[in-house]
């Protein structure tokens, strides 16, 4: 029974944080279709209390989106991608090394897959964000480094990006073996991508 849930006394900010953490774990396991009644039970709160902190399931999903996706995009990535004192290969390898460390988690991959299967707008928002904030500037930097020899299209960038992300999908969705250190795989993918630049 919901009324029999024993709760620890927490400050509102701490309770809200606890609910978000529980929601991330819960939605990673069952997807956004999971009922909030079950989520509340997992979080150790009543459903009524959950709705005191989040007025709707959509608001809670938004908090999960902010935490799992937008919250993992580091502000310095764009500056480092645009730092032309560093060779373009080194910039791409550094970025994808940090990016994969940030997103190659059970929660990130599972929620992203569940949301995609549900046709959720959160995925589209995230991909649009990545395209505008990271991939478009990356394209511009590669084009500048090529000095007129090559100008990759956005589809080329998505192919590179998607191929690297697939390592995380293999690990966390398909449970297939993936090297513990994906750095050499990333470097090989970047080298193949930059081959039109020549030596």
Automatic annotation (TrEMBL):
InterPro entries: Homeodomain-like_sf, HTH-type_TetR-like_transc_reg, HTH_TetR
Signal peptide: none
DNA-binding region extent: 35-54
UniProt KW keywords: DNA-binding
Domain HTH tetR-type: residue ranges: 13-72
Keyword DNA-binding: yes
Protein name per Swiss-Prot or TrEMBL: Helix-turn-helix domain-containing protein
């Amino acid at each position: 029974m919901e009324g029999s849930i024993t709760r620890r006394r927490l400050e509102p900010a701490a309770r809200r944080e606890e609910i978000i953490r529980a929601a991330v774990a819960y939605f990673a396991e069952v997807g956004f279709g999971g009922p909030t009644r079950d989520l509340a039970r997992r979080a150790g709160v009543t459903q009524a209390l959950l709705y005191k902190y989040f007025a709707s399931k959509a608001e809670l999903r938004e908090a999960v989106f902010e935490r799992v996706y937008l919250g993992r995009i580091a502000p310095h990535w764009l500056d480092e991608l645009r730092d032309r004192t560093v060779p373009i290969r080194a910039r791409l390898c550094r970025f994808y090394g940090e990016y994969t460390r940030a997103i190659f988690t059970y929660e990130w991959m599972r929620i992203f897959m569940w949301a995609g299967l549900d046709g959720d707008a959160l995925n589209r928002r995230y991909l649009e964000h990545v395209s505008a904030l990271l991939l478009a500037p990356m394209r511009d930097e590669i084009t500048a480094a090529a000095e007129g020899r090559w100008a990759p299209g956005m589809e080329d960038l998505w192919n590179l990006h998607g191929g690297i992300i697939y390592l995380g999908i293999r690990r966390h969705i398909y449970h297939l073996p993936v090297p513990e250190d994906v750095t050499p795989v990333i470097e090989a993918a970047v080298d193949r991508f930059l081959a039109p630049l020549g030596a």
